[in-house]
């Protein structure tokens, strides 16, 4: 290399020479003025320092790496499913069911799992009933119902069959009703015609009254014993809870029974 630099034919040309360590980098540099620099590497083959021929450090290199990035935890909702009943069918019709599903991983949260789940619940509660009223069917009543004991209906009863099951819905007004009237079994009335009666023996069962009231969602907190016989007579006895007579309150007799065992 020095012979090359001292070649008379090249004396008018500035020449800088380098030496290399393959796969590592430059190990030395000699400028046209003859000043040499040595390149020193650490055990990871990173340039550590540059020195002169006497070993004096001309440049020193230090490496600092930022800590690795920690990605935040992302929480996703689990699948949420709820079945609604259509509630805009009008008198003489019962609303059919509609199931609304929020698939898993529809909503995400950087806060918590509960937050992701709550977003899915809000979805169901905000659009579930709306979609039900748009898509579920309305079922026409198949059988008429006549009340006894001067009981007053607040709607047109809906009674229909689903195979061997009779679906029954009738709202009884409470205005002017003695709060203790149903402390013993009393006849509500009878199913007048149609194939909505017991085919053989009478049947006793209990049911928890569904929410109702002026806004449709006031808890009833009442449990009833119902008797249905083959003649279509329907009787009710209040087992627990109370009746508070009011113009806006009603007794929600919505239940089902089997025509035959």
List keywords for this structure.
261 residues, mainly beta, five-stranded antiparallel beta sheet, 2 helices, 10% helix, 38% strand
Low-confidence stretches: none
End-to-end separation in angstroms reads 109 Å
Mean pLDDT score: 90
Strand line-up in the sheet with most strands: 1-2-3-4-5
Order of helices and strands: HEEEEEEEEEEHEEEEEEEEE
Describe the protein.
With 261 residues, the chain is mostly beta strands. The chain contains two helices and 19 strands. Strands 1-2-3-4-5 form a five-stranded antiparallel β-sheet, with no helix packed on it. It is rod-shaped.
Describe the structure concisely for a colleague.
This protein is mainly beta and 261 residues long.
Topology:
Layout: H1 2-5, E1 17-21, E2 25-30, E3 36-41, E4 47-51, E5 57-60, E6 75-76, E7 80-85, E8 93-95, E9 97-102, E10 108-109, H2 113-135, E11 138-140, E12 145-147, E13 158-162, E14 165-173, E15 186-191, E16 203-208, E17 223-228, E18 233-240, E19 250-258
Antiparallel strand pairs: 1-2, 2-3, 3-4, 4-5, 6-10, 7-9, 8-11, 12-15, 13-14, 14-19, 15-18, 16-17, 17-18
